[in-house]
Design a protein that fits this description.
Length: about 100
């Protein structure tokens, strides 16, 4: 466990304040081949978005090159990245998904 993972800070007077865990953004990156509909499905399945939210994020990634699909603690973020990449590869799409400390 690293220092930044520690769960609590103890102050001079002995008060204990819970420290929130480090958070990670999950980013989707644009490419020229993955179908828009597939990206929308990924956002609905793995990030629990509705059609409207998923379409908005997909179009942001398509036009700007990158977009945030969620912010999670380390273990949840890395599991989701793996699941998204595996789902994309299984469907033969080159979709890229990465995590970055917030
Ligand atoms: N640019 C892709 C297309 O025109 C769509 C796309 C959007 C791909 C978002 C990846 O993360 C992505 N079919």
């Amino acid at each position: 466990m690293t220092e930044s993972d520690s769960k609590a800070v103890i102050f001079d007077k002995g008060q204990i304040k819970q420290k929130s865990p480090p958070m990670y953004k999950i980013l989707l990156l644009n490419d020229d081949f993955t179908p828009m509909e597939f990206v929308i499905e990924v956002l609905k399945i793995f990030f629990f978005m509705n059609q409207e939210q998923a379409t908005r994020i997909m179009l942001k990634v398509h036009t700007e090159g990158v977009g945030v699909c969620g912010v999670y603690p380390s273990d949840i973020a890395s599991t989701k990245v793996k699941q998204v990449v595996e789902f994309a590869r299984r469907n033969q799409h080159p979709l890229r998904c990465v995590m970055e400390e917030n």
